[in-house]
Request: fold
Amino acid sequence: MEPTSLSQYTKDHFYTIIAIQAVFGLILGLIPLLLSFKRDRRNLGYMALGASLILSVISPILSLIGVIVFTVLIVRKPAAN
Reply:
């Protein structure tokens, strides 16, 4: 059995890696979504889920940053009218 390079492994399993990253983003995106249901800010929750899913396909670290930002936006008090 000969060793394969990392780039060859990535080429062979590209769609599997993308699917795993998307599932990671989906799981992370559920955190602000569930929190938004408790805080009655559902629109932000749905945006967080979508952003987390898209960002996780690019990079899981970006997804984590997006989830943190949306969680802060959901938790903070709404602006006074």
